[in-house]
Amino acid sequence: MGDKLLEIKNLITSFRIGDHYYAAVDNVSLTVNKNEVLGIVGESGSGKSALAFSVMGLHTKAKIEGSILFNGKDIVSLPKSELNGLRGDDMSMIFQDPLTALNPLMEIGAQISETLILHRPQMSLKERKDHVIELLNMVGIPRPEYVYEQFPHELSGGMRQRVIIAIAIANRPELLIADEPTTALDVTIQAQILDLVRKLKSEMGSGVILITHDLGVVAEMADRVAVMYAGQVVEIADVQTLFNNPKHPYTRSLLNSVPAEGQDKLHVIQGIVPALQNLPREGCRFAERIPWIESNTHEKDPVLHEISPGHFVRCTCYKHFYFPEEPKEAKVYGNTRG
Amino acid sequence: MAILEVEDLKIYFPIKAGIFNRTVDHIKAVDGVSFAIEEGKTYGLVGESGSGKTTTGRGIIGLEHITAGSVKFNGKDITNKKKKTKAISRDIQMIFQDPYSSLNPRKRVRDIIAEPLRNYENLTKQEEKKRVQELLELVGLSPESILKYPHEFSGGQRQRIGIARAIALKPKLIIADEPVSALDVSVQAQVLNFMQDIQKELGLTYLFISHDLGIVKHMCDDIAIMYKGRYVEQGTKEEIFNHPQHIYTKRLVSAIPDIDPSNREKLFQFRQEVQEEYDESYNEYFDSEGLAYSLKPISETHLVALPEKG
Ligand SMILES: Nc1ncnc2c1ncn2[C@@H]1O[C@H](COP(=O)(O)OP(=O)(O)OP(=O)(O)O)[C@@H](O)[C@H]1O
Ligand SMILES: Nc1ncnc2c1ncn2[C@@H]1O[C@H](COP(=O)(O)OP(=O)(O)OP(=O)(O)O)[C@@H](O)[C@H]1O
Ligand SMILES: [Mg+2]
Ligand SMILES: [Mg+2]
After folding, report:
1. Domain range for residue B176?
2. B220 shares its domain with B287
C-alpha cells in the first residue's frame, strides 16, 4: 500500500429531520493513498455527496462524528481559518451541481481568479489572467478570452461543469474530490477531463476520490472502488476484482442494470431507496431489496469481511445470492412490482 | 405522421460589448437544424457539449427566441408563438438538464409537482395529493417525500421530481434533456423502463438529449449528432453506431467508456488511432470556421455532413 493521504475513520454524518438526527453516512471508514484514484459508486441517495462534503468541511447543519485525517492531521475539528487555508489549495472539490456552485452575478474569469487571489496572492494581475485563460484552455473551453467575461447562465451545462473543474484544479491540489465530474460532458470532453485528472495524479502524486454513476468511467479511471448503499460501504476491492468478481448483491445488481446489446427491458432493483428517516438501521440494509433471498442468510449485525486481500464485502448474504427469474408480467414501475 | 417538424432552425445569441452594450456579433447556438420526429418514436440528440442541444429543446418549447426557421407541432406552426394554445403547452413538456436550478427551492415537492395539475385540471385537495403521491411512486420516490423541500434530496432524487412533474399532465411530446444522467444505473434502468412503458401506454414521443451513448443506443430509434450548432450526421441507431461516417461521430463513438477495466490499454490504442484520423482529416471535414458542411444523403435515412467536393 502506498502513502496514506486521507484516512476516514468511523465517519458518521447526520442530518436533522424533525427532532432527530439521521445518519446519511453511517460509520464509514476509507483510505485514499497518494497517487491513487478511489472510485465511489452507489445508489442515488446513498450518502456519497454527504461523505464528500464532510471531508471538505462544507456541511453547515449536519452533525459529524468520527475522524478524517488529511496527511495525518485530523481535520474534523480544525478551526475554520485553518480549514479555509486547506480548501481550494491542498484539497479541492468538483461539485456535482455546477450552477449552485457558481456565483450567478460574477463573471467566469473573476470566479476562477478568486481562488488564485486567496491562495496565490503574490501573482500579478497579468499572471493571474494568463493562468485563468490557460486553465480554461486545459478544460477544453473554446474561446476562453470571451468566456472569461461571460456569466454562468450564458454557458451550456457542460461548459459550467468545466469552469468548476478549472477552479478545482487551479492550485493543483493534493486531494481532489470529484463528485460526478463528467456527467454533464460529452464523451470526447469527458476523455479530456479524465486525462487531466490522470495527469494531476501522475505528475503531482495527488489522490483522487471519484464519485460517479458512470461505471465505464470508474472502470477506466479507478485503482480501487468502494460501493455504497444506504450510508454504508458494502464492498471495496481493486478495480479488476470489483468488475470481474463482484460479490455483494447490491454491486452485482448494479452491474446487472447496465444496458446490454439488444436488451428489451433493463434490469432494475426491486423496491425504492428508503428515505433517510426510514432506513433500516439493523441487520442487512439491502435485505428488503432482495426478498427472495432467505432471511437467515443475512448477518444480524453485518460487518465488512475481508474475503481476499483488499476485497471487503458486508454481510454474509452474498454467499447465497442469485438473480430471480425475471417474472414475465411484472411491471417494473419503481416499487409497484407485481 | 410526424408530430414534430423542425425546419432550418436558427437560434442566435447576441454578443454585446462596449459601454453602450451594442451587439457586436452573434453566437450561433443553433445554426440551421432540420428534423422530424414520428409520433411514438424516440429521437436522440447527442453531440459536443455546448453544441446547441439544450437550446434546440428550449427553442421548440418556446423558452428561447427563434431567430429563423420554423417549428411545427402536429402540423401547426408554433414558432415564437408567445400565446400558445393551452393544449399545446400542455402537450409538450420538458425535463430539464439541471435538476438543481429547475426546482424552486422554496416550494415543497407537493407544490412543485402539483403546479402543472393546478394550471390545467380542477382537482380537489384530496385528489391532487393522491395524484402527486402516485407520480412520486412511479418515479421511485417514497410518498412521504411530498412535504420535503428540494435541498433535502440527493441529486438523483431531485431529477426524479422533475420527471414526475413533466409527466403529470400526460403530454404527447417530452423533451428530455439528460433525464437520467444524475441517477445511478439501477435507478436509471427504472426510469428508462418507465419512460418506455408510458411511451407505449400513452403513445408518447421523445426528443431525448443525452451524452450517454449506451443509453441513447438503448432508447432511440433515430439519432442526430450535433457539433457547433449544426448536424454532422443523422441516421438510424444502427447506421450511427455501426456505420458512422463523419469523423466527429467516429471520435464520439470511440470515446465511449468501457465497463471492463482490462480493456484500458486496447481502448487507449484505438482512441489514439481515431484521434489521428480526426486530426488528419479535420480540415477536410470542417470549413475555415471549423463548422460542419451541409448534410448529404447517403441512404434514405442516413445523412452526413460530407466535405464539399471541388
Ligand atoms: N440537507 C439535508 N437535509 C436532510 N437530508 C439530506 C440533506 N442532504 C442530503 N440528505 C439526504 O441524505 C441522503 C444522502 O444524500 P447524498 O446527497 O449524500 O446522496 P448521494 O449518494 O450523493 O446521491 P446522488 O447519487 O443522487 O447524488 C439522502 O437520503 C438525502 O435525501
Ligand atoms: N442565454 C445565453 N446567452 C448567450 N449564450 C448562450 C445562452 N444560452 C446558451 N448560450 C450558448 O449557446 C451554445 C449552446 O448552448 P447549449 O446549452 O444549447 O449547449 P448543449 O448542447 O446543451 O451543451 P451541454 O451538452 O453542455 O448541455 C453555448 O455556446 C452557450 O454558451
Ligand atoms: Mg450526490
Ligand atoms: Mg445542454
Report:
1. 39-61+85-227
2. no
Residues of B159-179 as b/e, b for ≥16 C-beta within 10 angstroms?
A: bbbbbbbbbbbebbbbbbbbb
CB-based contact A219 B141, cutoff 8 Å: no
If you measure from the C-alpha of residue A246 to the centroid of ligand 3, how many angstroms do you get, rounded to a whole number? 23
On whether residue B215 sits in a domain, the answer given is yes
User: Is B30 within the bounds of a domain?
Assistant: no
Residues B125 and B171 in one domain: yes
- Residue owning the nearest CA to atom 22 of ligand 1: A49
- pLDDT confidence of residue A325: 65
Contact assignment for B257 to A336 by CB distance below 8 Å: no
B187 has pLDDT over 90: no
The 3-state DSSP class for residue B261 equals: helix
Q: pLDDT tens digits, residue range B213-247?
A: 999 999 999 999 999 999 999 999 999 999 999 99
**Alpha-helical runs (H) found in chain B:** 53-61, 86-91, 109-120, 125-138, 155-167, 185-202, 213-219, 237-242, 247-254, 264-285
A219's enclosing H/E stretch is: helix A215-221
Rounded to whole angstroms, the Cα distance separating B75 from A46 reads 46
Tell how far the Cα of A298 is from the centroid of ligand 4, in angstroms: 44
B123 lies in the same domain as B241: no
Tell whether ligand 2 has an atom less than 6 A from the beta carbon of residue B51. yes
Q: Kindly report the protein residue whose alpha carbon is nearest to atom 14 of ligand 2.
A: B52
Say how many C-beta atoms besides its own lie within 10 A of residue A178's C-beta. 29
Q: Does the pLDDT value for residue A1 go beyond 70?
A: no
d(CA B184, CA B188): 6
A residues 21..80 contacting B (CB < 8 A): 41-45, 49
Q: Which positions in chain B touch A258 (Cβ < 8 Å)?
A: 185, 214, 259
- Nearest-atom number in ligand 2 for the CA of B64 is 1
Tally of domains within chain B:
2
Report the percentage of chain A scoring pLDDT > 90.
67
pLDDT, one tens digit per residue, over A14-37 is: 999 889 999 999 999 999 999 999
Amino acid at A57: G
C-alpha cell belonging to residue B304: 452526413
- Ligand 2 within 6 A of A154 CB? yes
Q: Do A334 and B140 touch (CB under 8 A)?
A: yes
- Out of A61-65, A140-144, A288-292, B18-22, which region has the weakest mean confidence (pLDDT)? B18-22
Which chain A residues touch B262 with a CB distance below 8 Å? 240, 244
Q: How far apart are CA A233 and CA A9, in angstroms?
A: 12
Residues of A within 8 A of B267 (CB-CB) are 220
Asked if A154 has any chain B CB less than 8 Å from its own CB, the reply is yes
The answer to whether the CB of B143 falls within 8 A of the CB of B133 is yes
Q: The whole model's pTM is what?
A: 0.88
Give dist(CA B149, CA B136) in Å, integer. 14
Ligand 2 atom at shortest distance from the alpha carbon of B52: 18
Question: Do both B290 and B306 map to the same domain?
Answer: yes
Q: What is the CATH number of the domain that holds B214?
A: 3.40.50.300
Question: Torsion angle of alpha carbons A169, A173, A175, A176, nearest 10°?
Answer: 0
3-state helix, strand, coil in chain B (%, to 5): 40, 25, 35
